[in-house]
Amino acid sequence: MDCLFCKIIKREIPADIVYEDEHVLAFNDINPQAPTHILIIPKQHIATLNDIEEADLALIGRLQYTAARLAKERGFAEEGYRVVMNCNDQGGQTVYHIHMHLMGGRRFTWPAG
Predict the structure, then answer these.
(1) Where is 59: in which H helix or E strand?
(2) Of 21, 59, 71, 84, which sits most exposed with the smallest number of CB within 10 A?
(3) Looking at the whole model, is its pTM more than 0.85?
(4) Is residue 43 a contact partner of residue 24, using CB atoms and an 8 Å limit?
(5) What keywords sit in the KW lines (predicted)?
């Protein structure tokens, strides 16, 4: 498999890792869109949101929990933050391994930008 995020999980490609447990890895985005921009990924390869199965529900919840925990640890949970998951090409997905963007430290507008 030639998945960029799987290679990061296997430590074949370096990343600035900020959190890890047996199911989840989180690291700083190399092209941040906010003062804090962390990618949160499952260690299990799931290509898109469309590929999530019922057996994956606890894992997806763990991604959300990790985002909230990291926002609290970094001090912007109360002010607010953005969590984004993109799906497929028209949804803006560029790496086909589900991942959550946690962004904080600035005011966000709607639509995203």
Answers:
(1) helix 57-73
(2) 21
(3) yes
(4) yes
(5) Hydrolase
